[in-house]
Amino acid sequence: MTGFYGFECQNTCSGNCRYNTTCNFITACTDGAYGLHCSSKCSHCRDSGVCEKVTGNCPAGGCERGFKGAKCDTSSFTLQ
Predict the structure, then answer these.
(1) Which among 4, 50, 60, 61 counts the fewest CB atoms within 10 Å?
(2) 16 pLDDT more than 70
(3) Which long-range contacts (CB under 8 A, 24 or more apart) does 53-60 make?
């Protein structure tokens, strides 16, 4: 069924689902979105800015300058 996913198609796809077709929360997120209903946005992944579709973790390339952590959502700048 187009626009729904999950057990008995009871979950509605968000506007971030790829091609606005039948989706599932693991593979159907557009680049830059992740998680349940594709409702979370990738943080500061280096280069493409695209994160893993389930966890939001950035690829092996790491984070943009000034950020750290698996999701690159923590500032690495220190206040002085």
Answers:
(1) 60
(2) no
(3) 53/26, 53/27, 53/29, 54/25, 54/26
By DSSP bridging, strand 74-75 and strand 33-34 are unpaired
User: Residue 73: how many CB atoms within 10 A of its CB?
Assistant: 16
pLDDT of residue 1: 54
State the SS3 of the chain: CCCEECHHHCEECCCCEHHHCCCCCCCCECCCEECHHHCEECCCECCCCCCCCCCCCCCCCCECCCEECCCCCEECCCCC
- Percent over 90 (pLDDT), the chain: 29
Beta partners for residue 17, in sequence order: 29
Tell which residue, 18, 40, 19, 39, has the closest CA to residue 27. Answer: 18
